[in-house]
Amino acid sequence: MARMPGLPGSLSLSPRGVRASADLARRPDRPKRPRPCAPRRTPRLGVVRPLATSPRSAPHPRHHGQESPLLEEAQHLFRKSIWGQYCTLFLFQKTPRIYSVELSGTKDIKKIDKGDGKEKYRGLKNKHSNCNKNHQIQEIKEELDLDAHKLSIVDLEKKYGTNIITGLSSARAAELLAQDGPNALSPPKETPEIVKFLKQMVGGFSILLWMGVILSWITYGIEYSKDPSTPLDDVYLGAVLAPVVILTGTFAYYQEAKSTNIIASFSKMIPQQALVIRDAEKKTIPSEQLVVGDIVEIKGGDQIPADIRLLSSQGCKVDNSSLTGESEPQSRSCDFTDDNPLETKNIGFYSTTCLEGTATGMVINTGDRTVIGQIASLASGVGNEKTPIAIEIEHFVHIVAGVAVSLGIIFFIIAVSMKNPVLDSIIFLIGIVEANVPEGFQATVTVILTLTAKRMAKKNCLVKNLEAVETLGSTSIICSDKTGTLTQNRMTVAHLWFDNQIFMADTSEDHSNQTFDQSSGTWASLSKIITLCNRAEFKPGQESVPIMKKIVIGDASETALLKFSEVILGDVMEIRKRNRKIAEIPFNSTNKFQLSIHETDDPNDKRFLMVMKGAPERILEKCSTIMINGQEQPLDESTAEAFYTAYTELGGLGERVLGFCHLYLPADEFPETYSFDIDTVNFPTSNLCFVGLLSMIDPPRSTVPDAVTKCRSAGIKVIMVTGDHPITAKAVAKSVGIISANSETVEDVAKRLNIAVEQVNKW
Question: Transmembrane region positions (predicted)?
Answer without folding.
Answer: 201-220, 235-254, 396-418
